[in-house]
Amino acid sequence: MTRPEKLSDRDTIIYEIDMLEYCYRKLVQVERPSRLEGYAFLESFLLHYRNLLDFFGKEPQADDLSVRRPDDWAADPVSAKSRTKPLEAKGMDLWREYEDRKRRLDTISRYLHHCTRQRKEAKDWPVREMYGKISGLVQEFLQIIGCWQHVAVENGRLVDAGAGMSTMTIKEFSPPGRSD
User: Fold this and answer.
1) Element (H, E) at 112
2) 65 burial via Cβ count (<10 Å: 0-12, 13-18, 19+)
């Protein structure tokens, strides 16, 4: 299975939103996923949550997509810039709550980035509460961008874009030291 090809930077953000919503629905559905599926959906939820936290609240660096850089994702960047100020403040507060390493050690990134000693510590992720906090930002953002389409999810189902299991397009692959 291949991740759907994104046509624009806006599509990258819509993909993150689609995947967050899909994982959230899987985690809170009546029929609970198996333990391993639950872990996979939780980690995916946290990954896409963190990516959206960075988009809405983190100071952008290099080529980071950010709500603060509407030239990358808005059809009308000037109009979008004036409408994103409230989102920036809310996003920064939410980013500080879950990702600011100066304020806390148990950030989402610390549990996802590396195999650290911290990961052995039990951590309860209040998924419903977390989703409730970011869903307002997402809805405000979608109103700002206006017309958009789902990139990865249709009718609650992940779009199957073909064979394979990658998150990027690989045109050619050779093992190290081999040039076929």
Assistant:
1) helix 108-112
2) middle
How large is the greatest C-alpha to C-alpha distance in the chain, in angstroms? Answer: 53
Instruction: Give the C-alpha separation, 91 to 109, whole Å.
Output: 17
Which of 121, 126, 89 shows the shortest CA–CA distance to 106?
Answer: 121
Report domain extents, the chain.
Answer: 9-158
What are 53-82's pLDDT values in tens digits?
999 999 999 999 999 999 999 989 999 998
DSSP, residue by residue, 143-175: HHH-S---SSEETTEE---SSS-BSS--S----
pTM: predicted TM-score of the whole model, two decimal places: 0.80
What residue ranges of the chain have pLDDT lower than 70? 1-6, 153-180
